Predict the structure.
Amino acid sequence: MRDILAWIEATGLGHMMRESGPWTYAIVNLVHILGVSSVFGSLLVLDLRLLGLWRRVRLSDLSSVVTPIAVTGFAIAAMTGSAMLATKATAYDGNPFLLIKFPAIAIGLVNVAVLNVTPAWKARGSRELTRGETRQLAVMGGISLLSWLTAVSAGRMIGYW
């Protein structure tokens, strides 16, 4: 793991982050927080809807609004997170929260991929879902909520290790 972290730190991105002045890391960190907030905030609303809240709100309407926000937020968070990691990657060697954060993100992304090919998700705007389909989407909403909450929490704790 240390070799991978050393390689990340030695990249041009790592050098640029360390050598571009004291405000660079602070600004990148701020943008990262905004990206993470966008991902988690939009998915929180969608996941709670999948879990059964706000049943009067059509799932297709809600997902069409929050999905672009989540995708954009994730792209911003991934880019800025990579830059922050590259700044001092070797300092995180042995940090258990790093080893929690990335698998949690992977689970969240796999869950999104599976959700998008689920027949219930595809049918959400064209017909009434069955109880079984609603339960299936609720399980996926729960997995999403747990994985992203874990990723956000572990990410926050990385700096305190």
Q: What stands out?
A: The chain has a mean pLDDT of 95.
